[in-house]
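Q: What structure does this chain adopt?
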Amino acid sequence: LRLPLRGTEGGILTEGNFTHKYGLDQQNLDAYGELVSTKEQLESKLKETEQIETELESQKQESKRLYQEIVQHQKKLREERAKIIQQWNKSNDNIRLYLDEMGDIVQGETSFRELIRRPGKEFAKDLCDRDKDDNPQGGFFNDLLSKTSEDRWVFREKFIKQIVKGEGDSISFSKPFIKHIQNISVNTPEDIDRLCTWFPEDKIVLKLIKNGREEDIETGSAGQRTAAMLSLLLLLDDSPLIIDQPEDDLDTKRITDLVVAGLRKFKTKQQVIVVTHNPNIPVNGGAENIIQMNYARGLIRTLTYGALQKNEVREAVCEVMEGGRTALNNRYFRISKALQ
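A:
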């Protein structure tokens, strides 16, 4: 390379004196080109990273919003349950229902253990510890029951945050339990999402009304428990209802006051099918279709059917059902007296 250049020695710029004067050679030029290319690549990746961080932050905010929406839906669900129970209580004098929010610790523990894939008694001290007499001894679920309904929401959220994110220190858990949750987070992170949106089940508390006082259903007799369950069934929705021998374990008064009265009331809004040997139920319950059936040689046959206006149906009630003739006489006596 020979070019005339003012200010150079001899007026000639050669490759040697150019590189000597400016410290550049072919190797440095190639390295500079690589650095420029690397810089451009890093700037592009930096821009991509910034976009990903922006999107990630947006996703975090959306996740928080959706989580709060789930919590509000859970609270709304319990409000609706409480309203329905209140309506049921107004329409029944035999039982009282109460909603114990997040109070079903048996089902709650079962569903939680399914999520963490640990059925049985492992981590009992962390979740639901009991002594040999089945008395509560500690653990999250037993502690949950000691809280008020409102405090249970806060307590549950603290529990989830501590085991999933390690936030807070209000609840202490064993290292094996925390380690197991951490393993879930690494191996099946989708299960952590399910844990975050898990809520303990509610418990429906059923009380018997006896002599104007409320009693636990567990302390009632078989007949009282049957009466309570029938009362509850008759308060459900308007789907068809099939009841098999509701008179079992019930005395005559309860059959009349509960079963017969309930059937007369609820048959106007739903179909009720009753299998019974007690004549008071079809006769005084206002049955619109009585079907006499017979079982022999492994087969069920229909012998007669229809309303009480049919003579053969009345005869079947009198012959097959013990006390059927008395029930019919009492019914028609009341009808004739009302028409006088």
